Write the structure tokens for this entry.
Amino acid sequence: MGSFTSSEQFETMLGGFFEHLTTVPSIAEKLLASKLIIRFKYTDPDVVLVVDCSGDALEIRRGDSETTATVEMFMTADVAHRFWFGKVNLMMALTRKQMVAKGPVPKILELLPAIKPAYQLYPTYLRENGYAQYVID
Amino acid sequence: MRGGYAGLVLHIDLTSGHHTEEPLPPDVTREYLGGGGVAARLYLDLIGEGLTEGSPPPDALSPENPIVIMTGPLTGVKVDAVARWTMSSRSPLTGFWGDSNVGGHFGAELKSAGYDGIVITGAAATPMLIDIQDGTVEIRDAAPYWGADVYEATDRLTEDLRGGGGRGQVLAIGPAGEKLVRFAAVGTRKRHWAGRTGLGAVWGTKNLKAIHVRGSGEVPIAMPERLRVLREELKTLYAEDMLIEALTAFGTIASIDLGALTGDVPYQNWRTGFWAGVDELSSVAYQEQLLTGNATCYACGVRCKREVEVKAGPYAGVKGAGPEYETLCVFGSLCLNTDLPSIAKANELCNRYGMDTMSCGSTIAFALECFETGLLGPEHWAEPAPQWGDAAAIVELVELIGRREGVGDLLAEGSAAAAARLGGGAHTLLSTVKGLEAPMHDARGAHGLGLAYAVSPRGACHNASLQYPIEPGGMFVADVPELAVELEEQSSQGKAALNVATQDYGTFFAGCAVFCNLGARPLSAAQAVEMVSCVTGVDYTLDELMTVGRRVWYLKRGLSNLFGARAEHDRLPPRLMTALDDGPTAGGIPDMDLMLSEFYALRDIDAQGLPRRGVLEDLGLGDLADLLDR
């Protein structure tokens, strides 16, 4: 069993982080430029989050399994949580199938420069929003 | 039926101008398989007699130093990612064992012409070239081509030696090889290089300008139906593999995006862990500014090679083979240079002069720091001195090295030799192990890489084993338990055992078979073994091929030992052992003492760095043990 037992709790925590990222101009601009619609499908517990960069403003939609996504990412909640601390080697996670990505690889690679600054923001977000117990040192 | 091999090795004595054909015996291919394995065996046989009689090993730039070009059993088979072949000799850059693993079409063409490999001994009195056309061999005057750069020589020779059956493949050196630049390369099709360890200078000292080969034969396949079934299986595997898709889309350049996240990419001559400019070198930026298309090796559908063009600005006119990841980093992140067109220009200049981009760019990064610290000064370069990120100066330094002019003459000796001449602590700025400049993968981000660089027979190298793709995660061989262990990159625990496994498997896989360690990454060990078995007709087991890999690893290690390598050479330089203040690897360095002591114990290597007789005899290398005991 993973670190998170409640879908609602994990959805609120990570969905809230994604919403926080939409307020960071340096990240939001790069995501919007990608025009991607990315669906994250988490297991253990099951959660679906969509990051929609296709419009004029970023939208984070919780539980959206209907929209046609450009990119779909599959992983456990624990892997996702560790990833945002910069503690998951993306390449290793992909080759070992701890993460599965479906969609155009060039578009996925375009996202990497946008992701980099988010690593530093995640622990701060957790501490400031009542999730300090989940911070990984 | 014995498949995979032409069965003959061409021996050419440049001193006399004579050539002979020697059989490639099945017992040699069974024990050494091909590529760098057979090459190392043939090399030792060639120099062993002299050593037994008490002669010292041949100097790298003496006529007595042989060059061995060798294909593997898979070279020339129409399957993805098996076009590669090898070139081996004593390195004029390091003084130790030198070899290089090359792609392109030359290996396939050579086998089509009836030869598994070429052994070149002696030295010609005047510039010569070797022309091989379907078993007909001629040694011709190369004076009209001497001085031509690799691009020009390739074009002219391809046209001039065109036979009735069409165009052949040219392998040539440029002015750098002729002028004995210590990291001179040998190139084919203007984009595939025997780059590392400076074997182009061995060609230069032998007055060998080029080899042209044209063949019309087919590589024999022992079990074609089994190979057809395997091909179908791999077709599905490749279609679904995300990393193969990334390789096709971005080539090796994709590594910079991921490497910047993990601390793999080195900056500013390895001294800082963070540089915002790396985003300007991203695969997307490369695609937008330079890329015009893809190119590939013989029969490979991965198509990872880059075709580029610079259409405007001071470097307009650059067109053709584009920089790979390593080249992008040495002229980019290592020099803090964000100017992609200048990197394409530096790459083209290296190609034309015939120089290893990795050693050249690393040596320039070293030089920039020497200018910064005053170790190089106005006597070496008119003021103002070159600065970090000075694209024009970087390009000019490449030119000077290729022509051996001004400060370029010093730098053409390689960074380690240049540091020794400069003194004053210049050695603390080096990235070299055994004299070879480190590749663009920081061992502070994957500690086992540090051990891989330290104990690689040819010096700091990420391709002497499969440690590089496996430890940072780009390759996962699930059916070899020793390679499928849980990994923590920034830890030194367990990395000695992992290195042993990546050496044994990697030497078989990428060194001898010869699979491409990029395009063949999706293959399981079972599939790799099956392919070798289908092609050769020998039903190999993984154990047997791992033993081949182990045997060849010890043989190459022993050759470097014969050339003087000892335990003190199995060390990372101070620069790579200094913790970074920032970035993903801040504060961490590999525990080299731990890893080396475990590694020596696992490999049965003594405190001097020499393999013990027992382990060599167990692998059928008693003759090597005798030579090491001299």
Remarks:
- The mean pLDDT of chain B is 97.
- Chain B is about 40% helix and 15% strand.
- Residues 223 and 315 of chain B are 51 Å apart (CA to CA).
- Chain B touches chain A at residues 242-243, 245-246, 249-250, 254, 257-258, 260-262, 279, 282-284, 287, 472-476, 487, 489, 584 (CB under 8 Å).
